[in-house]
Structures are given as structure tokens and as C-alpha cells.
């Protein structure tokens, strides 16, 4: 190995770098020159056989050659990238003189679609829509609805609590994100005189997250208060709702005894279904599917809201909007409702005229 051989190698490699006409070809040049088995690397491996003075001299020369070839490769790469960008800019252009092309329409979220369907169905039964605050006090969320002081729903692992209101004490001071839309029932009964017939769709919050639970979700509550309401009216109302919502004329239903602090008696409503072949089909079948909770408004709740339970009675019901949307439209995971995935929305969303 001599200085003249290094000069010859330098000339050869520089010419090869200049000849590379794209990034892959330039990468091959780099590997050939500076890779583990490259020409410069191979020459460095021979330094051990030289005497100390030659080793010093040739080592410096080889390091300088390595730096020069690396710099030449970087400069050529920058040049090639700039040329590629200029070529893209020439070919990837927009002709502003063309007529504007129609863009895809936006889609309606399944939650919005379902709330609209529920509102239409219950409006035909004479129900109006009521709304209320999402930040509530402990009285409206729990006490007025007959939840005892030690009820598990009041615990922090289930409920999102906010700092207490300064200057107030008791359950009026405690602030929280409402855990159900039943709080609006309290506001309605406190501010409206019977008869009352309202539905309450809205956001609710609970500390939970998995395939069937999210920290924020939507509920719909229904409330009817008058002097003659009874359990038969409740059953007829809900059976008609399920038939219309799921678009099944012959829909088996049943009401199972249950317990809720704010209704007495209380029940859970099931609808008939079939799970044959691993596919859920709503309608006549050999199985049942829980759909909602309901019951006659507890006399103590009426009393807490300023309504005389000896004169008035009524019924209430509640359901998860995401849950019934999942059942109707075949959506398998609750969390996907809130992930803002445009592909998901394009698949499950609805056009402005209601088409899927």
C-alpha cells in the first residue's frame, strides 16, 4: 500500500460517487467504499503489518480519504434529494383552472343518529325533551333519588368528584360529574307542575373503561308523572318503543323484578333474541337480551322533589344510548365511539338523509 495507490483509490471512488444517479445507487457506493468489507476498510486492516512510522503516515492518509469520501457521498445525496424534490414539484401540481370537484359529504355519528331516532319515537308518544347541567351537586345526583349515604355509587372509585363549593355545607356543597341523567328528572319535578312527560338524553360520567364501559357515555331517561299512571302504561310504552327502534313487529318481551333506589317496584326489560351460529338476531328466538331498567317512581323521590305522592304517581326508565346503538348497528366495541377514527365513522356513520 502506497500513497499513489491511495490517490488512485480516491479518484476511483469520487468518480463512482459522481456517477450515482439515485439514492439506492449512492448507498451501494457507500457500502463498497466504507462498509465492513469496503475498499477503504480493507486497506485499514493492513495497517498492522507496517512499521510504526509508515503506520502513522498511512493511517492519517486513510482517515483523510474516509472523511473526503463521506463528505462527497453526503453532498451527492443532498443534490439527488433536491433534484428528486424538484421533479416531484414539477409533476405533482394542481391545475387551479379546473372546475372544483365535489368532495365527500360528512357523516352523522351513530350516537347523534340514535338520539334522533329515540326523540322521534318518544315524541310520537307525547314526550318532550328536557336537559340539565352535567356538573351536579350530591343532593340532585344521589340524595333526592333515594340513594342512602353508604351506597357504593357514592364512592370515589365510581364517581368523578369536584372540589366542594366554598361557603356551603352538606350534600349541596359537594360537586360531581353526573353519573346518570336521572338528575334532570329532579330539576324537572322541582320546576314543573304535573302532569310531566319528558325524555332526557345526555352525557354521563363514571370511573370505568373497558369494551363495554367508558368514562363518558350517553344515557336516555324517561319520566312520566300524573294521577293515573301505572305499571301497565310503562310496559306498553316500552314495548312500543322497542318494536319501533329495532324495527321488529313480533318482538317477545319480559319484565324481571329488580331494584333501583329511585323506583318501586323496579324491573329490567328483556327482549327476545337468537344467538344461533354465534350471530345475535333480535326477535323471536330461544334467548333473552337485557335492554333497559325501569319502574314506578318511588314515593320518597316525589316527596323529595316537592310532589305529593298521595296525589301523583308515575314511572321512569333509563337506557344506555351506546348500548342500544351497538345492538342495532352491530358495533362490537364501545370505546370506538370516541376514538375519532374517520375510517370507523365512514363505515358506521350516516348521510344527511339517513342512508348508512
| C-alpha geometry | elongated
CATH class of the largest domain: Alpha Beta
Annotated CATH homologous superfamily of the largest domain: Bira Bifunctional Protein, Domain 2
Write down how many β-strands occur, each being a DSSP E stretch of 2 or more residues: 11
Description:
- The protein folds into 2 domains: 3-91; 110-348, Bira Bifunctional Protein, Domain 2 (BirA Bifunctional Protein, domain 2).
- Helix content is 40%, strand content 20%.
- It has helices at 3-19, 23-34, 39-44, 52-91, 110-123, 138-141, 182-191, 231-246, 299-304, 321-329, 342-348, and strands at residues 128-129, 135-137, 161-162, 175-177, 196-205, 216-226, 253-260, 263-274, 281-282, 287-297, 313-320.
- The strands form 2 sheets. Strands 1, 5, 6, 7, 8, 9, 10 and 11 form an 8-stranded mixed sheet that branches. Strands 2-4-3 form a 3-stranded antiparallel sheet.
- Helix 1 (3-19) packs parallel to helix 4 (52-91).
- The chain is elongated.
- It starts with a helix and ends in an 8-residue tail after the last helix.
Amino acid at each position: 500500500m502506497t500513497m499513489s495507490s491511495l490517490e488512485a483509490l480516491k479518484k476511483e471512488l469520487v468518480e463512482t460517487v459522481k456517477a450515482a444517479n439515485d439514492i439506492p445507487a449512492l448507498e451501494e457506493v457507500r457500502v463498497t467504499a466504507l462498509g465492513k468489507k469496503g475498499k477503504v476498510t480493507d486497506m485499514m486492516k493492513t495497517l498492522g503489518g507496517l512499521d510504526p512510522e509508515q503506520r502513522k503516515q498511512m493511517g492519517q492518509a486513510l482517515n483523510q480519504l474516509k472523511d473526503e469520501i463521506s463528505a462527497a457521498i453526503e453532498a451527492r445525496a443532498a443534490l439527488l434529494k433536491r433534484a428528486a424534490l424538484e421533479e416531484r414539484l414539477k409533476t405533482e401540481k394542481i391545475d387551479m383552472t379546473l372546475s372544483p370537484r365535489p368532495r365527500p359529504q360528512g357523516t352523522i355519528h351513530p350516537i347523534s343518529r340514535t338520539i334522533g331516532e329515540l326523540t322521534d319515537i318518544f315524541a310520537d308518544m307525547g314526550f318532550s325533551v328536557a336537559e340539565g347541567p352535567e356538573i351536579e351537586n350530591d343532593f340532585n345526583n344521589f340524595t333526592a333519588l333515594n340513594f342512602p349515604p353508604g351506597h357504593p355509587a357514592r364512592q370515589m372509585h365510581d364517581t368523578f368528584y369536584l372540589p366542594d363549593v366554598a361557603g356551603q355545607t352538606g350534600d349541596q356543597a359537594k360537586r360531581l360529574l353526573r353519573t346518570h341523567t336521572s338528575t334532570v328528572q329532579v330539576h324537572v319535578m322541582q320546576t314543573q307542575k304535573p302532569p310531566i312527560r319528558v325524555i332526557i338524553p345526555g352525557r354521563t360520567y363514571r370511573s370505568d373503561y373497558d369494551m363495554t364501559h367508558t368514562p363518558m357515555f350517553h344515557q336516555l331517561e324517561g319520566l312520566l308523572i300524573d294521577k293515573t299512571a301505572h305499571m301497565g302504561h310503562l310496559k306498553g310504552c316500552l314495548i312500543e318503543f322497542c318494536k319501533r327502534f329495532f324495527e321488529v313487529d313480533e318482538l317477545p318481551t319480559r319484565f324481571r323484578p329488580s331494584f333501583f333506589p329511585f323506583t318501586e317496584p323496579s324491573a329490567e326489560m328483556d327482549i327476545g333474541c337468537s344467538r344461533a351460529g354465534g350471530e345475535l338476531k333480535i326477535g323471536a328466538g330461544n334467548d333473552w337480551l337485557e335492554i333497559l331498567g325501569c319502574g314506578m317512581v318511588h314515593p320518597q323521590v316525589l316527596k323529595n322533589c316537592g310532589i305529593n305522592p298521595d296525589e301523583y304517581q308515575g314511572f321512569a326508565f333509563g337506557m344506555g344510548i351506546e348500548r342500544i346503538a351497538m345492538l342495532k348497528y352491530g358495533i362490537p366495541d364501545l370505546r370506538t365511539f370516541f376514538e375519532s377514527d374517520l375510517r370507523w365513522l365512514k363505515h358506521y356513520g350516516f348521510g344527511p338523509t339517513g342512508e348508512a
